[in-house]
# Entry
Amino acid sequence: MASVRPILLTGFEPFGGEAVNPSWLIASALDGETIAGRPVVAQRLPTEFRRSLPVLRAALRRHAPSLVVALGQAGGRGELSVERVAINVDDARIPDNAGASPIDVPVVRGGPAAHFSTLPVKAIVAALRARGVPAAVSQSAGTFVCNHVFYGLQQALAGTRVRSGFVHVPSLPEQAVARPGEPSLPLATMIDGVREVLRVAATHRGPDLREGGGAVS
Ligand code: PCA
# Structure
């Protein structure tokens, strides 16, 4: 019998002076679970422009996943942000974990300006909200290592039937206490939400929901 191709779920190592990164805490918590009949394998990625994509591509080769969701932390956001689009530019406001700060460099030289998520982003947001987990479609994954990985992921899987995309998660309460006013979500809520993201991404059939998720500016 052919074995079931897994779901690959990635998270990042801490960056920007933080002790933890909720994206990896969530991914590692779901490692080994079975969702919609498929095993979840978690992969930690370095928060480095140079090394993140080689590590991701090796994981794609090793696991031959049927679905890939990459997670990253977006401090300052209060909801699970289901990213719509990855753009072909690196522009670092802070150095990555190797000290690199590329400015206006393409992720993939000669690649298209952007890649869309191939996840049903609207259906995912609707399902999260129905579950009581704050969520929104996001129109920009930024220009740091998360967008870099998102673009490289979509480029690697372009033309295949493997769905993939990116979800930014808020800070944890224990991170936000250091920055009064910064929104946060408890780890358990985010784990529950990402489990739902994977379930909907694995089972949604047909076109995405036709529901407003845009922004005016
Ligand atoms: N967030 C950063 C990189 C790693 C992470 O978790 C970002 O949003 O680019």
